[in-house]
Amino acid sequence: MSSKRRKQQPSMIGWVLLVFVLSMGFMMIRNHFSEPEISFQEQFIETLNANMTPHPTFKSVVYAQAILESNWGQSELSTEANNLFGIKGDYHGESYIVTTTEFEDGAFASMDDTFRRYPDYRTSIADHAELMYLSRYDGVREARTYREAAQALQDGGYATDPNYAAKLIEIIETYRLFEYDLTQ
Hints:
By secondary structure, this protein is mostly helical. The protein has a domain of 118 residues: Orthogonal Bundle (Lysozyme), CATH 1.10.530.10. The protein is 58% helix and 11% strand. It has 9 helices and 2 strands. Strands 1-2 form a two-stranded antiparallel ribbon. A hairpin with a 2-residue loop joins strand 1 and strand 2. Helix 2 crosses helix 5, helix 3 packs across helix 8 and helix 7 packs antiparallel against helix 8. The protein is globular and about 40 Å long. The N and C termini lie far apart (49 Å). The relative contact order is 0.13.
């Protein structure tokens, strides 16, 4: 009877250690983010998940774009115009002018430009999804991996930054955003 007890104790200790290690890993990942980043995650992911069904690309790529384009929801464009993706032009006649950095003639330059103003994040996400149906983004919709989708965005002219795809991929891998793709 005492031999059975010895066999059960390591198993119980193993489970306790597993739970401890997983908990510590979660806390370390959570502690990797600042409070504004955590707040943005909670608000954005909830909104994204509620509106993702019609979105034609990987969640990780959409999330990385929002992080990059809005600086975790802290940019002037995202706070004043609810524009999470840096989409230019107007939305039903509503726009917002802000200084932006563009890559032109082999160099980065600052300039004022007109961007779409949205009533809320939900509309920004829905409009981004609609934008992805343009033929210039066929490669984004046809991508089999987040890496292919990021490159297709750059190739489709989404941004002027020649390192746009690499920046998206770095964000996806740094913050393990590819895990959101598993739930699609």
